[in-house]
Amino acid sequence: MKVKKLSGKVQDAQQIPALFDNENIMYHPVDRVNWEAYPYQPHVSFRIAYTNDAILLHYKVTEDSVRARYGEDNGSVWTDSCVEFFSIPAADGIYYNLECNCIGTVLLAAGPERSDREAAPLEITGQVKRWASLGRETFEEKIGECTWEVALLIPYKVFF
Fold first, then answer.
1. Single Gene Ontology BP term (predicted)?
2. I want to staple 103 with a disulfide (CB 3.0 to 4.6 A). Which of 68, 77, 112, 117 is the partner?
3. For the chain, how many helices (H) and strands (E)?
4. What pLDDT score does 103 carry?
5. C-alpha angle 145/63/84, rounded to 5°?
């Protein structure tokens, strides 16, 4: 996959979907289920680009139900309807995972392995700008097909 560099500075995550449309940045499917114990597979696609200052992501998800119990960063967003981004930005082998639920709440952690991770301080997670099509308020599970989107503007400085 080739990731396009965009010129200029993006100020707000809400701008990302329209910007990607204007720049003809295509969606890529997420078509693998990594956990045998959890075979459910929602329809997920994403778009990605970068600028001099940040990584830009736009996810689109359609699933059988949706939930957003966690509204504060570094909570258990993986138990909500969520998406995840992995990155190894330097040669030190430290990888970052940024999980984001359907209302834009994030969990950011870093470490050399999956089991030995350090969560980012809230001062760091607060620098990730987000837009969520479902708004930012928590809610219990809603049964029935739902399509939601989330856009993230991830400044390079969050890689602590």
1. carbohydrate catabolic process
2. 68
3. 2, 10
4. 99
5. 150
Ranges assigned E (strand) in the chain:
4-5, 28-30, 43-50, 54-68, 82-87, 95-101, 106-111, 118-119, 129-132, 139-155
Q: Using CA atoms, how far apart are residues 126 and 110, in angstroms rounded to an integer?
A: 16
Cα separation of 149 and 160, whole Å? 27
pLDDT digits (tens, 9 = 90+) for 108-153: 999 988 778 899 999 999 999 999 999 999 999 999 999 999 999 9
Whether residue 19 contacts residue 4, with contact meaning beta carbons closer than 8 Å, is answered with no
Spatial strand order of the sheet with 82-87 comes to 82-87, 95-101, 106-111, 118-119
The CA distance from 38 to 107, in Å, is 21
Contact predicate 141/66, CB 8 Å: yes
Q: Report the mean per-residue pLDDT for the chain.
A: 95
Only one residue has tokens 């503007």, namely 153
Residue reference for tokens 């991770």: 117
The span from the CA of 123 to the CA of 131, in Å, is 18
Task: Please write the tens of the pLDDT for every residue from 48-78.
Answer: 999 999 999 999 999 999 999 999 999 999 9
- CA-nearest of 103, 15, 100, 111 to 56 is 15
